[in-house]
Design brief:
3 strands, 8% strand, globular, 8 helices, 47% helix, single chain, three-stranded antiparallel beta sheet, mainly alpha
Amino acid sequence: MHAVSSMERSDEESENSSENSFNEIITATMAGGYAMMSMMMVPPQVNYVYHQPDITGRQWVDNLLANRRRCFVNFHKQPENFQRLHAILSRGFGLASTREAESIEALGMFLWAAGTAQSQRQMHERFRRGLGTYSKIFALVLNAMVRFANDVIRPKDYTYSVVPQELLEYTPFFYGCIGAIDGTHIDVVVDEAVCEDFIIRKGRTTQNVIIVCDFNMRFTYIGAGTEGSAHDMRVIKTTWANPTYPHPPSGFST
């Protein structure tokens, strides 16, 4: 065996020392890299749910009145027409504020429910009041609307003493003619016990509504409530007996 010279031992120790130094540098570099990565990492984002507080029914109505598009979508009226209707019903037809709701909120509730087919439970969800309260508020506005309708949906002159200008050139063929009559079907929701009477051949549940208008396109009579399955002739014969139904002047047949 050959003895290892001092020079060979020195070279080996130098090589081991260099390798250890390189490993230490690599280890330190990796540790530094991991530290930098940890510092630069973005913490996970948490999507906190923001619960917007409920607004009152009056605030909701006011918000819609401030936006023409939303007002028309929900109330089927532009804001100025809503305000005008509210003023008319309040001044002369019994619409008033109560302990349960202000009059403007009550009207908004009524128009929203009637115009977009909302149930009392949906009204409860929107306005946050008891179910019985909505029945009272709805009835209050409905009574005012019926009184208003009876006042405006009628002939201007029940005697028809003046021949409409549109008929003068056709004299005397249309003497006694007071307007035009037609019928339409309007979708309704009725009690299950009578639902079959209101179902038409297209499968919808409707009322058969009769409408009369004069030559100025002014409605003079609207008869609602007849079940959709009723024949048009039965609707006409039923409405003829109504005291408010417009009839031609004496001496002319209906």
